[in-house]
Amino acid sequence: MPQTSVAAVIVSYQSDERLFRGLEALAPQVGRIIVVDNDSGDGVRAKLKEVVEAGGDKVQLVLNDENVGLAAAQNQGIRLALEEGADWVLLLDDDSVPDAGMVEALLAAHDSHPAPERIGLVAPRLHDAEGTLKARAYVSTHAFDLRRVRFGPGDVLDNVAFVIASGSLVKAEVFREIGLMREDFFVDYIDFEFAFRMRRFDWGLVAVGDAGLEHRLGEFEHKRLLGRDFRFNSHSGFRRYHIYRNRMRVWRAYGLRLPAFFAFEAASIAIDLAKIILLEDDKLEKLGGIGRGVMHAVLGRSTRPAA
Question: Considering the entire predicted model, what is its pTM?
Fold first, then answer.
């Protein structure tokens, strides 16, 4: 049964069949779908127009003449959802496919929370077809506490520190109080910054095990090293630039509010660099992207993305 108070915002960019699988899975779960396309090309746009025609008034398509960035495109959709009176906005990437009943499970977890009035975001349990994405959430009860917690069906985790944007169901009131996504981030760490900003305004985040979302973090790769198989997701040099530039921006803005985040980030960086050096292709391009990202964060510079 569709949740009429929910408007979904999906940003597409050079999408593949997962976008259309996601739209099909989403249609019976929400009252409205807004697709913002960042110049994906004629083939994808033609298929999107077919979806809009088949969906009638339920599906709205916004076509950008260029890739304006994930955050700016999300904001286009969020503004439309708010103008149309949505109580909740569901954010989705174009490679995410909601499980059946995901939205209903998210709303049920919110409604059954002991203090639902201050829960501003409910997030699903992530999984992927390749088995590289583990169902984990990062929980924090004070500034020096940040724990990685596995969860599954039946679990509801409170005091979540941050979540990825895709699959996040956000109260309209949150956007009205704290603002929209940081467009100068373009892509990557947008969701981290938004989550930390929510916590600064005393909004709570919850992760829900009964709500599932098929998602992919980066491009899937399968490599063999020293007789062992490694299955992992990777990012291009373009994406590495934005990840490292924006993570340093988040450190500067919110690191002192959650010092435990630095330990989490140090481990993430060590693993990322090891993957690049030992397993990934285009090592120099990716390491160069990281170096430029760090330098531009230190200098306070931004560049117009080339991809």
Answer: 0.92
